[in-house]
Amino acid sequence: MHPLQVTDPSPPLSSLSALLAEQASVLAASVGSPVVPPAYLDLVRRAQGVDVLAGQVLTLCVQQCRDAGHTWQEIGDVLGVTRQAVFQRFGKPIDPRTGEPMDKTVRMTDAAERAVEIVTDILEGRMDKARRSFNSEVLAAFTDEVRGEALATVVGLVGAFEGFGGAEPFVRNIGDHTVVDVPLHYEAADMKARIAFDADEKVAGIFFLAPEAP
Question: What Pfam families does the entry give (predicted)?
Answer without folding.
Answer: DUF3887
